[in-house]
């Protein structure tokens, strides 16, 4: 096409010259020779006595007109052809450009997402194998933030060249999916060990220093790998599997690679569902207080209840704290749940005998929160619940993180008449330092001391009781059960233990079921 265009301007004048010479030649030939012969041959009358001048005038006139009628359309036609040619050329260029844009990513020059998806779709449509290695750069955002997008583009270009070379070495295609997300596509079966080697090469090469002088001077990559023969037979599902595997790597420390694992994905989905349900549960008061009686010794009369959280699920089942408290901790929802439980528990307890007390478990983050004492005191005021009827149970783990804050908060509560109990005593730090430095009013001896066959623990219980007596603290024994009868309750009472709690006196129950307890007339009265 270009050659033709280049030759055209030279050829045209020559052609014109030939045309002009031919016309003139033919006219001369006709006028001076052929005319007489033809007329003679046709047996027509012919006057051959024309002056030469007359003949030349005819030749020039007819040639002139012939040339004009030849040149003008030729020039017009030539312009028309030139215009058509240039439009055609422009169209071709635009078409080529569109094809490049539609196939390749303009920044990196790698195959783009659309073509990648088509390639995978075609391959899987033909029931042939495909493996996707999704690569997400680590710390790329820092490059853009610190050096601007132009520097970021240079880095992406450099990374693309490294991936291209790995793809070439291993019979794959390098793809830029968008942003700092790349992919290597293999359209053949690759053994797991081979994929591992390629992924390792990617991690190593993408962690190597960048020639574009930027900070951080080296990035890193987190990789997720999926395979059509084990994970998914549909293009977007295969990419999603690689994405899930990559996400797992991001969570577990980056610069690593993972294969898609359906069991991990199932657990992750279940966890996400649980988190969503728990958020709703807290908002809609599905988490309710159950009440477990605490009895005074030796009378064994109920003097109060420990509030224990239960999740009443919409499907009618009940979930215990071990299943949801750690998740709520992670979601930062423990304060909201505790507030809701306090409100519900106080409203129930306000209908009981006003000597009955409530004991509430308070988590580590709340105990050390500077706002906690005032928020609790205000809530108890709002609920018209006397401070001296309220007790907070804390564990030693809650104290070690920020002992000073815990000390300030607990002494403020203690000063307002709220009892502070140290829960699960004997299994954690069991530190004398904690007991003496903090405003602790009560110790709850962990139930593991009273487990069946643990009679050798009883001397330790005696020691704790002796220590508490010296420090003027009260003691509750947790986990007193039916099988401890008849000895443990009387032994505890004789050893100076003030309170007992456990299945012997009642299991945790909702407020509406408290009449079920038979061990104490106090409970009957309360209901
Ligand atoms: P905890 O504070 O030590 O609560 C006592 C646990 O022992 C309760 O389990 C109770 O049902 C169980 N228990 C009571 N008596 C007996 C007995 O005689 N034998 C046996 N085997 N177990 C007995 P639960 O309700 O599952 O609570 C477990 C833990 O969850 C609690 O231990 C507490 O640390 C935490 N928890 C419960 N409710 C809340 C809450 O509202 N807030 C916070 N932060 N933690 C809570
Ligand atoms: Ca407790
Ligand atoms: Ca306990």
From TrEMBL:
The keyword Transmembrane applies. InterPro entries: Biofilm_reg_signaling, EAL_dom, EAL_sf, GGDEF_dom, Nucleotide_cyclase, Rev_trsase/Diguanyl_cyclase. Residues 128-262 form the GGDEF domain. Keywords: Membrane, Transmembrane, Transmembrane helix. The chain crosses the membrane at residues 12-30. Gene3D superfamilies: 3.30.70.270, EAL domain. Pfam families: EAL, GGDEF. Residues 271-522 form the EAL domain. This is Putative signaling protein. It comes from Pseudomonas graminis.
């Amino acid at each position: 096409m270009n050659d033709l265009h280049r030759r055209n301007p030279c050829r045209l004048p020559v052609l014109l010259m030939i045309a002009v010479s031919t016309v003139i030649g033919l006219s001369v030939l006709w006028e001076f020779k052929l005319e007489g012969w033809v007329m003679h041959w046709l047996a027509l009358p012919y006057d051959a006595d024309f002056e030469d001048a007359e003949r030349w005038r005819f030749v020039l006139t007819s040639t002139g007109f012939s040339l004009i009628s030849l040149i003008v359309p030729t020039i017009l036609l030539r312009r028309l052809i030139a215009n058509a040619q240039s439009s055609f050329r422009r169209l071709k260029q635009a078409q080529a450009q569109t094809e490049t844009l539609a196939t390749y990513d303009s920044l990196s020059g790698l195959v783009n997402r659309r073509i990648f998806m088509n390639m995978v779709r075609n391959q899987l449509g033909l029931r042939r194998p495909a493996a996707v290695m999704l690569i997400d750069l680590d710390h790329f955002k820092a490059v853009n933030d610190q050096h601007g997008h132009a520097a970021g583009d240079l880095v992406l270009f450099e990374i693309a060249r490294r991936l291209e070379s790995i793809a070439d070495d291993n019979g794959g295609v390098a793809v830029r999916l968008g942003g700092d997300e790349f992919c290597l596509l293999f359209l053949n079966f690759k053994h797991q060990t081979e994929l591992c080697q390629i992924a390792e090469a990617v991690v190593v090469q993408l962690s190597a220093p960048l020639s574009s002088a930027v900070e951080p001077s080296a990035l890193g990559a987190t990789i997720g790998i999926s395979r059509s023969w084990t994970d998914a037979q549909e293009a977007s599902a295969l990419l999603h599997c690689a994405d899930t595997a990559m996400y797992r790597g991001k969570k577990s420390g980056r610069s690593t690679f993972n294969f898609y694992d359906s069991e991990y994905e199932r657990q992750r989905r279940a966890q996400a569902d649980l988190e969503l349900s728990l958020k709703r549960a807290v908002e809609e008061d599905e988490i309710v207080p159950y009440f477990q009686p605490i009895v005074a010794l030796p009378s064994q009369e109920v003097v109060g209840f420990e509030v224990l959280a239960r999740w009443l699920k919409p499907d009618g089942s009940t979930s215990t704290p071990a299943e949801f408290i750690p998740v709520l901790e992670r979601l930062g929802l423990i304060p909201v749940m505790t507030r809701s439980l306090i409100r519900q528990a106080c409203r129930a307890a306000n209908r009981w005998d006003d000597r009955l007390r409530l004991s509430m478990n308070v988590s580590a983050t709340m105990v050390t929160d500077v706002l906690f004492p005032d928020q609790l005191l205000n809530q108890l005021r709002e609920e018209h619940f006397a401070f001296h009827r309220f007790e907070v149970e804390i564990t030693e783990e809650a104290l070690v993180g920020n002992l000073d804050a815990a000390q300030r908060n607990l002494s403020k509560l203690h000063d307002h008449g709220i009892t502070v109990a140290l829960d699960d005593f004997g299994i954690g730090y069991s530190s004398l330092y904690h007991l003496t430095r903090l405003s602790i009013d009560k110790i709850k001896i962990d139930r593991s001391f009273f487990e069946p066959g643990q009679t050798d623990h009883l001397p330790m219980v005696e020691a704790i009781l002796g220590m508490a007596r010296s420090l003027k603290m009260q003691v509750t024994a947790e986990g007193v059960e039916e099988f401890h009868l008849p000895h443990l309750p009387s032994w505890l009472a004789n050893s100076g233990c003030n309170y007992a709690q456990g299945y012997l006196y009642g299991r945790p129950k909702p407020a509406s079921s408290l009449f079920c307890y038979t061990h104490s007339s106090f409970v009957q009265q309360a209901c």
